[in-house]
Write a structure and sequence with these properties.
mainly alpha
């Protein structure tokens, strides 16, 4: 049983306008990176071209149904920016089918990069902004997916154990 308070636990505060802006920025980045039109984006979200472009400029609040369709299509690329405002992230369950050895390599690669950043003479003991940019989102995401896959596997083992006892 969790010792965390269920009603008034640790909460990160955020502004709705910041959340809408973050969603808009991420939606615009996805559109640009994937070479999509606003009509394409609207089709994914189940909305019109105009409505999709309004989401990107934070002129319109996105309904949950459109948000979930975006999550299904673009995973964390779409949702993790806004979810990070409340200390959360979206991860795809069972998406990492790599071997445990490959998972270890991803985690150790990130650990090595962090260690190198923390042992330099300019900012000993911390990772500065430039070093974090150098490490990059890819290395962080790869290690995170590896850890999430192991966590999901552990949850399945725990669930199986509970079912066997019941």
């Amino acid at each position: 049983m969790s010792s965390k308070p269920h009603i008034h636990g640790r909460r990160a505060s955020f502004s709705a306008s910041v959340a809408l802006s973050q969603l808009g920025e991420d939606l615009s980045a996805i559109r640009k990176e994937d070479g999509l039109t606003w009509k394409d984006v609207g089709r994914v979200l189940g909305k019109s071209e105009d409505r999709a472009s309004n989401y990107a400029t934070a002129l319109s609040e996105m309904p949950v149904s459109a948000f979930l369709l975006g999550c299904r299509e673009w995973n964390g690329r779409f949702a993790n920016g806004v979810l990070s405002l409340i200390g959360m992230k979206l991860t795809e369950i069972g998406s990492d089918a790599t071997s445990d050895g490959e998972k270890l390599c991803r985690i150790l690669r990130l650990a090595h990069m962090l260690s190198a950043a923390m042992t330099d003479m300019e900012t000993p003991g911390s990772v500065d902004e430039g070093e974090l940019r150098e490490i990059g989102a890819d290395a962080l995401d790869e290690a995170s997916r590896a850890i999430d896959a192991l966590r999901a596997r552990l949850a399945r083992l725990d669930q199986a154990k509970l079912e066997a006892v019941a």
